[in-house]
Specification:
The protein is an alpha+beta fold. It contains 38 helices and 48 strands. It has a seven-stranded mixed sheet with strand order 4-3-1-5-6-8-7. It has a five-stranded mixed sheet with strand order 22-28-27-23-24, with helices on one face. The protein has a five-stranded mixed sheet with strand order 41-40-39-42-43. The protein starts with a strand and ends with a helix.
């Protein structure tokens, strides 16, 4: 136990001995070796300590004895009183007493006790800012005293000048002009340790603090005065800083007590010292140098499997050397491009050898017969393209093939016949299984099984035996008795009722099914010759109607009635090309006859020597009446999580991507086409299919490029195909199998920078095969060539099984150096690298040079249209190079500078300066601000206001082009490092406050830190620049020393400007910071390093001790031995950090007090499966198709990039589900922008709530994404994000979490705080607000429809 005796007055006495005596009390919140108890009757002090130090148990001296204590910290007066008390039982207290010796009064130790004094402890020698000299006394039982021969030396630290603790934003009286001029002309120069420095009767801040400085006036920096200097007394916070009170405690008490804080401090400060103007640096290593790069890793089995993969791939490449690999190349996407059939044949041989069939047939022998004329088979020209014998090669002329390849062709022909039959049979089987039995199967005997004919007219005999004619019912219900007849009558009625109910739907099913069977029957092995159609009966039941009739459209306005005739092509030659290209779409009945109320236009644009048709859904007003949810597409960065060196990649393209999917039935009549000039009117050359179609208007039946929601609708079903292709993840024969999910996140001590951050791992240690879909381009990855081919083959099988097209002519072979995908090229030959093709790099350099030439010729008159063309291409390149994206901003500003809502620099105008200042205050306090809220709404430009032909180049464009010229130097394409080769990862944390700076860097070897003061020419720079310069200078020093070569560096800063400028590339307010970031990007490229910059809160910086380095405090936080990785919890989720309290709080407003979820809208207590809220673990992220229920995401910040990828897919496939996110505000550049686009409700929980206490430092980001589903005859809004209710609630939650004191709620400092015992009452207000909001959303039509669909 440790007890602090405070005194009867209850006044907190702070002694300024850095890291000694009472200083230990304030550091005790990081030390878990002691159980602390406070003995004082003072309530305020008890409350303060209980809040700031939750491990301290408040008590009073009356109910707490000294027995069981480890050590007692007290003062000399108390010890003298105890020694003078004859009744005090010293034998009962066998622990040392440590105290300050403040008087010369002699102390006589009790019998059996020893008394020692340590004199002349200079405050300046232990890093302080005063000249105080102190003595420490130790009274201890003699049995505990150990007297070593050599006493350990006290650790000395560089002293810190007083100005490192002064606040420059506190108002002060102006300094006299004469005195200010004197200081400017004769700057103060001090060397070594100097006494208090006085200038004109004032205390100079470059010296040390005198003992009674509390009432003395000091020359202080002040940004509000001319010359940036002023005169005032020190504030309470500054006095506390001089006395070594931890800055976190100063912040806490200042915020809680405000002006009253001075009453509760009695500062005993010491003499002062003078600092040197030279920068003083101290470095320390906490571990010996270790040059060995190998270390034990929990990912060792993955590395071993990777080495096996690289060896296996090398062996495979030796098998076949005379055939070039099939990779993406020019002309491959042409409609008449040949299918590389030999690739399938070769991969078949590879598979046979891998299965152990090499002894049955010799691979080399077969390969030797590839061109051997003696073993060739002549294959005649196909007479009918539908002939199964030849459909796989689509023979147009006679060819010769080796016998084994001819055999494979025959096998494909047989397989095609089988597949055609299976399509028809599966359709009929699905009808039998899904439709009521009364519709497709009658009982034996037909309707006579229920009735018995009576014949109508009949002759009978009456009582007198006379023949008379009577009329009977035509039938009677069959049955021996009345009960049996009743059953027959009910069955008969049920049969007719089913036919009436299902007649329309059954007719539609047979109509569409017949079309599917027809297209399948006319398909070839490599091509859907008559076009494809979704085999809707094979899709999941949840997507049956979507696949058959198309998804419903989200309509937000009146659908158009547009009948403006289609323009005639410019020339007859162009018209012939238009007829030919559009005729293919009509022949496949993607455009078909039907009712038309509105039409859309089609126009042609030149493309080399050909033309390209553009389908326009905007001019008719169709797009204006539609709404589509926002969604993202995967990037090259997303694919990196499944790639390691020597892994393979293969590309598969979906043929006629948008045209594979049906247009909604209700919208087809508004998507007509005027085919007057797009049909063949010559009877002699007219094809059979066109002769019966004489209508002027036809209509689209499929999604077409140019309609607003076509991309969303098509990708929605395409992603469902991807999920189906994954199959059973535990099936060992499944190429997409995986066993576990491994998190390899920065911030953990065993982080391995050579591996992905999130990995799906197979049972054999390899990373699982993966599919990435970029519109119609599918990228498949695998650990070896054959496994990658098996994976892409299964995807192709699922596509054709569901009725989608695989464009076989675009298929590529699994290689380690594939062609471009999603804008870039990923290579895994030696390491995982990203680059662009040489042609694209040359074009990029040419365009940048063209921009530079246009600026130099006439920067005031630049062609706007040309700038738009250049921007379009460079935007595509930025998908590969993350360092290029920030330098495209100048193009955006220049292209739109003519708009009325832009300022002189091209930026959007703000509402007022007051709003900006308020936002900046919130940012400085660590609170998030959406600056878009302050933007002026852009004025709508009418048709008569056309954009100008020329625009004026803005200053940002000039600087961006200069940066791009420097970054795109070199004839070879720049290579983007994806992972480093060195296992050592460096973490850099830096801060600059006042006139000082400091930074600490650590890795697995130890910790290094440095601290110093700015030179005179840098002191008057902005604080943003000084903090940025501190970090960049340190990085440059590391680069010069060779410590960044092929390494990964994480930089942490509490300056939002530096982080924002790093990712945006430009600071609007500071050109100097922009130049610093450019220097940082150049270092990253030259050293082959990967640099990350992340913002952390100021309180976290203080907790780590780095904030104190700028004031000369070198023995706090990580410098004092704290585990540095504990200061950056990038790898820990919010739930883990709070022991499950975040999840508990979320579930408290998901369901009411009786446990009924808000989304359970079915009466009579029927529980919908989707009313559950499922917390997703890492293994669930990649198995969402098996998770039945709404999603609760509480991932670590470092895993958010992968989480956003899988969430985006899940949101598109299952829009009817709710998503709730709770993430600490860390690494926001990975997720905030993408997540907030989908957020219906978003707010921040400022640290201080019982479930998110102040020890969490950064706010907790909470995002709610509500269900979305179609509602018939509803016209929007479709998402709650657009409603005022969601916006107002988000603002209210932000405000009340930010300032709980204003609303009568207590702040919680740590998880162990006593306030948590009443958290039910403390957080009832937030639960009530959120619960009420969710229950009200049940009345929002898209949400209600989504819940019912679930």
């Amino acid at each position: 136990m440790v007890i602090f005796n405070i005194g009867k007055s209850g006044v907190l006495v702070l002694f300024g001995l850095r890291d000694h005596l009472f200083g230990l009390m304030w550091r005790m919140r990081w030390a878990s070796l002691f159980d602390v108890c406070i003995c004082t009757p003072h309530k305020l002090y008890n409350d303060t300590m209980a809040s700031f130090f939750p491990t301290i148990a408040p008590t009073t001296s009356r109910n707490r004895s000294l027995t069981g204590m480890d050590i007692v910290f007290t003062d000399q007066k108390t010890i003298l009183a105890l020694c003078g008390n004859k009744n005090f039982n010293w034998a009962a207290y066998q622990m040392p007493f440590v105290f300050t010796v403040s008087s010369q009064e002699e102390l006589v130790a009790p019998p059996g006790w020893s008394y020692m004094v340590k004199n002349k402890i200079f405050h300046r020698e232990v890093g302080g800012s005063t000249t105080g000299v102190y003595a420490l006394g130790l009274l201890s039982p003699s049995s505990l005293v150990c007297r070593p021969d050599i006493l350990p030396m006290m650790i000395q630290q560089p002293w810190a000048p007083m100005d490192s603790l002064l606040n420059s934003v506190v108002s002060a009286a102006p300094l006299q002009v004469a005195l200010r001029q004197q200081l400017e002309e004769n700057p103060l120069r001090l060397h070594g340790s100097a006494p208090v420095v006085r200038v004109g009767g004032l205390i100079h801040p470059r010296g040390l603090a005198p003992q009674h400085i509390g009432r003395l006036k000091v020359i202080v920096p002040c940004v509000f005065n001319a010359g940036k200097l002023g005169v005032r007394q020190l504030t309470t916070a500054e006095l506390a800083g001089l006395s070594d009170v931890p800055i976190l405690l100063i912040d806490y008490l200042t915020k809680r007590l405000g002006p009253r804080v001075r009453r509760y401090f009695r500062i005993a400060v010491m003499d002062t010292r003078v600092s040197s103007e030279k920068n003083c640096k101290a470095s320390q290593r906490t571990a010996e140098e270790d040059t060995d790069q190998t270390k034990d890793s929990r990912f060792l089995y993955i590395h071993q499997a990777r080495l096996l993969a690289s060896t296996a791939s090398a062996d495979e490449d030796l098998e076949i050397t005379d055939l070039a690999a099939v990779v993406k190349q020019e002309g491959q996407k042409a409609d008449d491009a040949p299918v590389p059939v030999h690739m399938w044949d070769v991969m078949y041989l590879r598979g046979r050898v891998a299965m152990g069939a090499g002894e049955q047939f010799n691979l080399w022998k077969l390969m030797s017969t590839w061109n051997n004329s003696g073993l060739m088979v002549t294959v005649p020209k196909a007479s009918d393209p539908r002939d199964c014998n030849f459909s796989d090669t689509q023979l147009t002329e006679e060819i010769q093939l080796p016998r084994w390849r001819w055999a494979l062709m025959k096998i494909r022909a047989a397989a095609l016949r089988y597949w055609r039959r299976r399509v028809t049979r599966s359709f009929l089987e699905s009808i039998h299984e899904s439709l009521p039995i009364g519709l497709w199967k009658k009982p034996n005997g037909g309707t006579t099984a229920w009735i018995e004919p009576m014949g109508g007219r009949a002759w009978v005999r009456d009582r007198r035996n006379r023949r008379i004619e009577v009329f009977r019912p035509p039938f009677v219900w069959k049955g021996e008795n009345q009960k049996a007849q009743h059953i027959s009558r009910n069955l008969y009625k049920k049969s007719w009722k089913l036919q009436r109910e299902y007649s329309a739907d059954v007719c539609r099913t047979f109509e569409v099914g017949a079309d599917c069977v027809y297209r399948a029957a006319n398909s070839l092995w490599w091509e859907w010759r008559e076009g494809s159609a979704l085999l809707f009966w094979r899709w999941p039941k949840s997507h049956f109607h979507w696949a058959r009739d198309g998804q419903p459209h989200y309509v937000i306005g009146d659908l158009p009635r547009f009948r403006e005739p289609q323009r005639k092509p410019r020339t007859e030659e162009v018209r012939i090309k238009v007829v030919e290209k559009f005729g293919k779409v009509r022949r496949k009945r993607y455009v078909d006859v039907g009712e038309v109320e509105s039409i859309t236009h089609v126009f042609d644009v030149p493309k080399n020597l050909d033309i390209r048709l553009v389908y326009d859904g905007t001019s008719s007003g169709l797009n204006a009446a539609l709404w589509a949810p926002r969604f993202g597409l995967p990037t090259l960065d997303d694919t990196l999580r499944s790639l390691l060196p020597h892994y393979f990649q293969c590309d598969l393209d979906v043929g006629e991507m948008f045209l594979c999917f049906n247009l909604g039935l209700n919208l087809r009549k508004y998507a007509g086409v005027d085919i007057t000039h797009m049909r063949n009117t010559n009877p002699e050359t007219q094809e059979e299919w066109e002769r019966g179609r004489v209508q002027k208007f036809e209509r689209w039946t499929r999604n077409f490029m140019g309609m607003k929601d076509s991309p969303y609708r098509s990708i929605q079903l395409m992603l469902m195909t991807k999920w189906m292709a994954y199959g059973d993840r535990l099936d060992k024969d499944n190429p997409y199998q995986w066993e576990r999910v491994e998190l390899n996140l920065p911030g953990s001590e065993d982080y391995d920078p050579t591996l992905p951050w999130v990995m799906k791992v197979r049972s054999d240690g390899h990373l699982a095969c993966e599919i990435y879909i970029y519109v119609d381009d599918c990228r498949v990855t695998g650990w070896c060539k054959l496994e990658c081919w098996r994976a892409v083959r299964k995807l192709s099988t699922i596509l054709n099984y569901l009725g989608l097209q695989d464009a076989f002519r675009k298929r590529t072979e699994p290689v380690v150096d594939p062609g471009p995908w999603s804008g870039g090229v990923t290579s895994t030959a030696l390491r995982v690298l990203v680059t662009v093709t040489i042609e694209k790099w040359r074009k990029t350099r040419a365009l940048v040079e063209e921009l530079d030439l246009m600026i130099r010729q006439n920067s005031r008159k630049i062609p706007r249209k040309r700038l738009e063309q250049i921007r379009g291409f460079l935007n595509y390149v930025t998908r590969t190079y993350r360092w290029m994206s920030p330098y495209i901003k100048g193009l955006h500003l220049t292209i739109d500078e003519w708009r009325k809502d832009r300022d002189m620099d091209g930026y959007r105008k703000f509402v007022n300066e007051a709003a900006i200042k308020e936002a900046e205050k919130d940012m400085a306090a660590g609170r998030e601000v959406d600056l878009d809220a302050f933007h002026v709404k852009e004025e709508v430009v009418g048709k008569e206001q056309k954009p100008p032909e020329f625009v004026e180049g803005k200053a940002r464009l000039l600087s961006d082009v200069a940066a791009l010229m420097k970054l795109t130097e070199g004839d070879t394409p720049a290579v983007q490092q994806c992972r480093v080769g060195e296992l050592l990862v460096a973490y850099l944390m830096g801060d600059a406050s006042g006139d000082g700076f400091g930074n600490g860097i650590w890795d697995s070897k130890g910790v290094e830190f440095e601290a110093g003061n700015w030179k005179e020419d840098l002191k008057h720079k902005s604080s943003n620049f000084r903090e940025s310069n501190n970090l960049v200078t340190k990085v440059e020093a590391l680069a010069d020393e060779g410590k960044l070569k092929d390494r990964e560096l994480f930089i942490f800063t509490d300056n939002t400007t530096f982080e924002g400028t790093f990712y945006k590339g430009h600071s609007k307010s500071s050109k100097e910071i922009t130049e610093l970031i450019l220097r940082l990007r150049v270092i990253e490229r030259k050293c082959g390093a990967i640099i990350h910059v992340f913002h952390i809160s100021g309180t976290r910086m203080k907790m780590a001790g780095v904030d104190g380095l700028s004031r000369g405090d070198c023995l706090e936080g990580i410098m004092a031995g704290m585990n540095p990785w504990s200061t950056i919890p990038l790898n820990e989720d919010a739930n883990k950090r709070t022991n499950g309290r975040v999840e508990e709080w979320i579930r408290s407003w998901w369901a009411d007090e009786k446990g009924k979820p808000w989304c359970q809208v079915v009466p009579n207590g029927v529980q919908y499966e989707s009313s559950k809220l499922e917390k997703l673990e890492p293994k669930d992220w990649f198995n969402l198709k098996e998770i039945k229920g709404h999603r609760l995401w509480i991932p670590p910040p470092a895993a958010m990039s992968t989480v956003m990828e899988v969430f985006g897919e899940d949101r598109i496939i299952n829009p009817h589900l709710t998503h709730i996110f709770a993430i600490p505000r860390l690494m926001t550049n990975l997720w905030r922008k993408r997540l907030f686009r989908n957020a219906d409700l978003k707010f921040y929980v400022t640290p201080g709530a019982p479930f998110w206490p102040r020890s969490m430092h950064e706010p907790l980001t909470v995002v709610v994404i509500l269900p979305l589903a179609h509602v018939e005859n509803y016209r929007g809004p479709w998402i709650a994000k657009d409603t005022s209710q969601a916006k107002q609630l988000g603002e209210k939650l932000d405000t009340q979490f930010k300032d709980p004191g204003e609303y009568g709620r207590a702040e919680c400092h740590d998880l162990e705080s006593s306030v948590f015992s009443v958290w039910e009452d403390e957080q009832r207000w937030s639960r009530d607000l959120l619960s009420q909001f969710l229950h009200e959303q049940v009345n929002f039509p898209p949400v209600s429809s989504g819940l019912l669909r679930g």
